[in-house]
Amino acid sequence: MSEVYTVKFTKTLQNPKIRELSFVMMHRKESSGIEHSISKLIPYKLFECIYIVEESEIEGDIEYFIKTYPWVKFLIFSGSPAPGVKINAASRELEAGYFCVFWDDMLISSGITPKLLQWLNLYKPVCTAPLLYHSEDLIPAITVPAFHDSQFTTLAFVPFRDQAETLFPSDYCGIYDRAVFLRLQGFCEDFIQPYWQLADFGVRSWLSEKSILCCNGFSCTYDSEVPFLDLTVGQEYELFRKRNASFIFDSFEKIVFRRNFVFRKLLNRSGKSEIRELHHRAKKDLFTLIENWEAPEEDLKV
To answer: What is the pLDDT of residues 148-176, one digit of tens each?
Structure first.
């Protein structure tokens, strides 16, 4: 069930002058004050802009921020949902064909250039992931899917070339193709842990042959420490397996459900129907995806 949120903006909110791309900034708990954060949107005031914040994190009068930053639309959540829930909500409020997601404890250090927009239209990934930096250090933000002791896992690499494939956008940061994102049903809101929510989105995208690529001409730099990503295997891993690892494709390219005890326990008849609907655009299964994935072999020269 979707979390409750309200949308607030000034009555004089004008239509953006640049319509191809919009910006979605998310407030990270315990980061700097909201006004300092929102000021990072000033370079993008000709674009459609959304700022996402939880009600408990607002200091002072929200009406002040609405009047001071009249080009920004505020999405205010009453609870503390996973980031994917917030991004889903933003995608429904936007009109631009692409939307750029980043956090308020980072800067888009590369800027947004016409060349980047040309790159998006040329390669057409569902999400374009940036190079991520902490200070001057390049972060291993390329995620490669794998199996270890029969369990799904991921390996992290430093981006090594333009258009490098990554299973999911690190820390949710990236430029999303809004139409394709919505067709894929966005992020699954049943996940609470960001890792499994991201992994689920990435697998569903790649199984449907919708790529997630890293772009060398797009980079973001953290102001503070890189956030910790919890990789705990628990109940959410079981949900991930049910949604993405419970089937294979047969020689006729039809979904066949795995018959071992674990998956018989996880899936009833209605569950199988849900999986078929969830992956009705899929061209391959998770096992084939991992088997054919080429891991990076060299570091990016920057």
So the answer is: 888 999 999 998 899 999 999 999 999 99
